Amino acid sequence: MILKILSVAFVILFIARILFAKKLKEMGKVADRTLNLFLIAIAIYLGLQALLVYAMV
Questions:
Q1: What is the chain's percent helix, strand, coil content, to nearest 5?
Q2: FRET pair for 47, CA 20 to 30 Å: which of 1, 4, 9, 32?
């Protein structure tokens, strides 16, 4: 369940990052850096989860 939620969150944040890049720059570096770190954390988690799932098969 958590994997599905994180997958959806990753896709939504990635698309929002692309669509609202100009607005994020106006908000400042802190908001941009926070979003980047959150995307990286989700990507690492999803990568490790996929590695564990496919290693078990």
A1: 95, 0, 5
A2: 32
Q: pLDDT digit string (tens) for 5-56? A: 877 888 888 888 788 877 767 777 777 787 788 888 888 988 898 898 888 7
Torsion angle (degrees, nearest 10) of CA 36, 52, 12, 30: -20
- How many CB atoms are closer than 10 A to CB 43? 13
Which tokens belong to 42? Answer: 């989700």
Hunting for tokens 């896709």 — which residue is that? 11
Q: Which domain holds residue 35?
A: 1-56
CB 46 within 8 A of CB 2: no
The total of structural domains in the chain comes to 1
